[in-house]
Specification:
Two copies of one chain form a homodimer. Helices cover 41% and strands 14% of the residues of chain A. By secondary structure, chain A is α/β, with parallel strands linked by helices. In chain A, the strands form four sheets. The first copy, chain A, has a seven-stranded mixed beta sheet with strand order 2-10-9-8-5-3-4, sandwiched between helices. In chain A, helix 1 packs antiparallel against helix 10, helix 2 crosses helix 10 and helix 12 packs across helix 14. Chain A is globular and about 75 Å long. The interface between A and B is large, with 64 and 64 residues. Chains A, B: It comes from Hebeloma cylindrosporum. Chains A, B: This is alanine--glyoxylate transaminase. Chains A, B: InterPro entries: Aminotrans_V_dom, Aminotrans_V_PyrdxlP_BS, PyrdxlP-dep_Trfase, PyrdxlP-dep_Trfase_major, PyrdxlP-dep_Trfase_small, SP_NH2Trfase/AEP_transaminase.
């Protein structure tokens, strides 16, 4: 790898939205890699390493990664166009905006979708899920591990266990765009079939890469479709096109379907190298690099600190119980009488950028803080402290301003 | 824009394949922009400017740009999924590998495709085209402006003129992945309907952005589909999803469908700013920046120098006539008895990276040189001279080695 040299990213406001997130200097420097051929012998192992390292992050030995130029959304198309044939049934556990959108995507490719909608801030009860699975045969079940719109965390292990028990052939598809590398995921142990994500959240790289891992069971279902002669519903998202490419790069040769985002693959490689590094690989012996499991713990700790500070400031979380609140982000209702226009600019003036609401019906009533990647793993940055103090200061300023105006 | 500061890309081999191409330091530095929110007021005008500038590069006032995270291939999906309804006819002018693939893409979405195949190195005769258009009603005609596999340049103006004359309602779709900003394109004057391209060739940015411009006529055809209730064939490539996003960013507000590749948009902005800059904007008054039209001329000149040097070395071009040879790349047959394994490593040892063949039937018999963007526009780099001398030296070395071995 090229040495980092004097590169240091420009001073900027702290970006703590639920993705894109702050990224390490090493990652940005890699994104500025000189132009390279996508079939160069120097680039091939970089791509191959990304395939191998993403398996490590997800604790899987046998899943097949797909790394494709595109946003996280493209993962839905991969599922809908490769795994579901027109007219087949899909069950969507809906915990927010992204459940609605995944439904829309599945229907575009001809799936017959049943949704189980959770109340805002809640999850679907497991007996409701079991009953639905008993009621009808579903080709796939999809759920959002962390719905970025609500900050609701689903119990992936228990969902997968329920499906395997009640409807063993149903494929378990997890939208993990806002959870990979920030929430615990054990692909093989939990017996998941698809985990789809993107580069710009917990994985700590710039946006532009759709990342999907498919279990041998899922690949088998797709192969059966092919053997029946049922054409995939998409060209760009077709596994027939991409599988040979992934296999080639992993085995050390190049193949061409569409030009990969070469620079971003270098950046992704730099971030994955940090995430999967042996503790001893740290450049600073005083601060060994955390393991993947330690990273999950660091995200939990940072999350608890932020959520507890928010509670202390009188803010109410959108998730209905702590057990269903994400560890990589926090969704908070504004206090009575406070709007996004009051709070977000005041945070911005303190160089802290958070996100507004996204879920249609309550969009104006809440805001979201992302706390993933270097912001929580590298404590020397002090990002968590900065978020907490900016939030407290801003709310006090608003209170003072309102008191003044009322006089 | 952030100042370039001390950033200079690392020394590396000269990349002169037909994309990705060498890019300017400014562009790579922009690709290393600190993480930014995709809905930030600072980012919105950057995205909006890209939309405005790409119109300038293509000489269009009224076309609608779509800038989507993905490779150039995604542009085909956009055409096939939005403009062609299942069962409708598409006519493909095939001048190489990319004609085969576009056909495959159109068929995936249900189009009934007729191909007019040119001989290797040639184009489809205009009377053949006119006869085909008279014979059947086609929803779209597609052609590859420069087929990257063969280096064949199609006469876009005359193709469009022929379609308008014989079959005025047929949409003229140009795959311009390997021609935008290196070959003359006059979108409005030539009355084109779709021009699709990618970021990593003449446009001089890293790969990862699908760029498509649609005429008001093409948008009208798509709107008619929507009004008839015919759903688009793709979710990720759906204009229903993307058009509101493009309109929002251009008008100065943010909207969300899928996270844009923020860093790459900064890089694309940096490259478009150089391409569309007023000559007076050059930092060095001695070397004013060329206009877009002057860039076309610079590509023609560099191309002629390389092609004439290759001819002098006894190399035969793949395009059958000079008039159908691209100006942004050169495809050359190996001399008798010389293989890719003889020539490419020798060029590589001289820090010049070219590409092998791509067209299946003759893949082993030829190689390709890209000469686009900064490599031809910034003469101070000396890239053209470097290509020519490395090619001459390598061929002489091969000759000497073969003579020695024969002794």
């Amino acid at each position: 790898m090229t040495s980092l040299g004097p590169f240091k990213q420009a001073p900027h406001k702290l970006l703590v939205i639920p993705g894109p997130i702050e990224v390490a200097d090493e990652v940005l420097f890699a994104n500025a890699h000189p132009s390279m051929s996508h079939v160069s012998p120097d680039f091939i192992p970089v791509f191959g390493d990304c395939i191998r390292m993403i398996r490590e992050v997800l604790f899987t030995k046998g899943a097949q990664p797909f790394l494709i130029s595109g946003s996280g959304t493209l993962g839905w198309d991969q599922v809908a166009a490769n795994l579901v044939e027109p007219g087949e049934n899909a069950l969507v556990l809906n915990t927010g905006y992204f459940g609605d959108s995944f439904t829309d995507c599945l229907e575009t490719y001809g799936a017959s979708v049943t949704q189980l909608k959770a109340p805002i801030g809640g999850t679907v009860p497991f007996d409701t899920l079991a009953a639905a699975l008993q009621d009808k045969r579903y080709k796939v079940l999809t759920f959002t591990h962390v719905d970025t719109s609500t900050g609701v965390l689903s119990d992936a292990a228990r969902i997968a266990e329920t499906v395997r028990r009640v409807s063993p052939d149903t494929l378990v598809v997890m939208d993990a765009v806002c959870s990979v590398a920030s929430e615990e995921i054990k692909f093989d142990e939990w017996d998941l079939d698809v985990v789809l994500t993107a580069s710009q959240k917990g994985l700590g790289a710039p946006p532009g890469l759709s990342i999907l891992l498919a279990s041998p069971r899922a690949v088998g279902v797709w192969e059966k479709r092919k053997s029946k002669g049922v054409r995939e519903g998409s060209y760009y998202a077709s596994w027939s096109k991409w599988l040979p490419i992934m296999k080639a790069y992993e085995s050390g040769s190049a193949a061409y379907f569409a030009t990969p985002p070469v620079n971003l693959i270098y950046a992704f490689h730099a971030s994955l190298s940090l995430i999967t590094a042996k503790p001893s690989a740290s450049p600073d012996p005083e601060t060994p690099l955390p393991s993947v499991n330690e990273r999950f713990a660091l995200h939990r700790t940072a999350s608890q600190r932020i959520k507890s500070a928010a509670k202390g400031l009188g803010l109410k979380q959108l998730p209905l119980q702590d057990a269903v609140a994400a560890n990589g982000m926090t969704a908070l209702y504004f206090p009575e009488g406070v709007t996004a226009g009051d709070l977000l600019p005041r945070l911005g003036a303190k160089d802290v950028v958070v996100a507004g609401g996204l879920l249609g019906s309550i969009k104006e009533k809440y805001f979201r803080i992302g706390h993933m990647g270097v912001s929580v793993v590298d404590s020397r940055r002090g990002d968590v402290e900065k978020i907490i103090s900016a939030l407290g200061d801003s709310l006090r300023e608003i209170k003072d301003a309102k008191a003044k105006a009322a006089k």
